[in-house]
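Hi V.,

Quick status before I head out on leave. The structure for the redesign project is tokenized and pasted below; the design run finished overnight.
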């Protein structure tokens, strides 16, 4: 398993729409894309305009096939509502969450 973190900057007035777009996007990707396992969204307490979305994928190759040119069409609405600050890939070593 791998995790992909996306860091976003969202204007306060776009926050509700961004959250809804993320939910729709992650649901659609999980349902239609091989290897996609869903995503979690985090909002910073220190700067509420900053969000991290963390996607889980079976393999790096699965994510790379989806990622393509770095702005997949499935994520277009999210990009219209927020500035993507970074993308980083991580190997999942263990997960002790319940």
């Amino acid at each position: 398993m791998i995790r992909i973190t996306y860091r976003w900057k969202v204007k306060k007035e776009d926050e509700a729409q961004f959250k809804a777009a993320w939910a729709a996007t992650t649901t659609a990707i999980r349902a239609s894309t091989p290897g996609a396992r869903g995503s979690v969204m985090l909002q910073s307490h220190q700067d509420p305009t900053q969000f991290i979305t963390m996607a889980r994928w079976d393999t790096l190759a699965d994510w790379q096939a989806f990622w393509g040119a770095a702005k997949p069409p499935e994520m277009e609405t999210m990009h219209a509502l927020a500035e993507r600050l970074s993308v980083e890939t991580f190997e999942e070593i263990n997960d002790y969450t319940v």
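Above is the designed sequence. The mean pLDDT is 95.

G. will cover questions while I'm gone.

Best,
W.
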